[in-house]
Amino acid sequence: MAVVGQGAPVRGTAGHSPAHAVLSPAMVPHPREELFSVLVVDDHPLLREAIAARLRSMGAGTVYEAASVAEARARAHANGPCDLAILDLGLPDGSGLDLVTELRSLGWNRLVVLASSDDPYAVRSAFQAGAQAYLLKSASAAIVTDGVKRVLDGGVYADPTVAPLLATGTRVPGTDNTPRELSAREVEVLQLVADGQSNKEIGEALSLSALTVKSHLSRIGRKLGTGDRAQMVALAMRAGVIR
Questions:
Q1: Within a 10 A sphere around the Cβ of 23, how many other Cβ atoms?
Q2: Domain annotation for the chain: domains and CATH numbers
Q3: Is 32 helix (H, G, I), strand (E, B) or coil?
Q4: CA 161 to CA 168: how far, in whole Å?
């Protein structure tokens, strides 16, 4: 018996030749319109399974699961980039932010962070690491669905709870209380200053010369109204720009 489907031969019925056999559109099976592959990384089995189930209902054809950075890394190298990855930041064996950066470098172009924290630094750090969306674990199913759809369409999405944090960008009130916008590079430099690194060490970490690092700090100082490193760090910390 022939299989009826797209491109399959159709046997003629009594009194009809195969050339005249016609299938109604309802009889022709259609593949699912949206099939995408996804990696879900979370160390909580119930949450991970719930996310996987929702993604399947949205059209995910293949769902890989991982409970740690090590498992996610193994999946990534074994299967190559998926269409989407959803990553917890609080993993037991390493930094979820580092995993975002690593997957991004391996060609994963759609990365969604799922986190418990609405800390401004964590939100900005996730996007700076290469994430396209930041969702809270407390988010409703509708918000998760909206975020995933937006990222699959090539967009960027922030949980409504954390969106106002992004709207402020990287503005830091200077010594005169006037907000000043810092560039992503200036924020990186300030974070390393806060970590106690010297200009030389900052330059090595960011592949910059010590002179360039000094120039960045001079610009930051002019913006914030102080040349004191400790005061610059304190102002940025109070604004939630660095941790």
A1: 12
A2: 36-165 (3.40.50.2300), 184-239 (1.10.10.10)
A3: coil
A4: 13
pLDDT of residue 169: 57
pLDDT per residue over 74-125, tens digit each?
A: 999 998 999 999 999 989 999 899 999 999 999 999 999 999 988 777 888 8
φ, ψ for residue 114, nearest 5 deg? -120, 115
Q: Alpha helices of the chain — where are they, by DSSP H?
A: 45-57, 69-79, 96-105, 120-129, 141-152, 163-167, 184-194, 199-206, 210-224, 229-238
Cα–Cα distance between 171 and 181 in angstroms, integer? 4
pLDDT tens string 17-47: 433 334 343 333 333 445 899 999 999 999 9
Dist. CA 196–CA 219, nearest whole Å: 19
What are 25's strand-pairing partners? none
- The half-sphere exposure of 4 on its side-chain side, counting CA atoms within 13 A, is 12
Contact present, 113 and 87 (Cβ < 8 Å): yes
